[in-house]
Amino acid sequence: MSLRLDHGEEALSEIHEINVTPFIDVILVLLIIFMIAAPLATVDISVDLPAANIEPSARPDKPLFLTLKSDLSVTLGADAVSRATLGAALDQATAGDKQQRVFLRADKTVPYGELMTLMNELRSAGYLHVALVGLEAEKLK
Fold this sequence. Notes:
Elements: H1 21-41, E1 64-68, E2 74-76, E3 79-81, H2 86-94, E4 102-106, H3 112-125, E5 130-132
Parallel strand pairs: 1-4, 4-5
Antiparallel strand pairs: 1-2, 2-3
């Protein structure tokens, strides 16, 4: 018994399918390049933050001001407080109401890291409602 492998045609017929494998390979390589290059493009961007010129919100009857001075000392209202007793002093001033908003003021010469450390201490004490206090900027015309 014999088997014939060709179909009797000597000319090759046209194939009407597109081979997309090389196209997918190129796309994957480009994807990897952009995934690596995109984070590198956003490093060391200088930012000049604008001043706030919105309408100030209503002030409560008895606001609780926590102030971080330029010498990194902390005052609660008008009384100096050590960082070790900050949680107890806040509990005494708010009568244990941890939902009361604490208005945080800081001298503009205070490093940002120190301000974040104080905010973390407030969070650790359970005070999550913190408002940052600043000066009003000149309104745009």
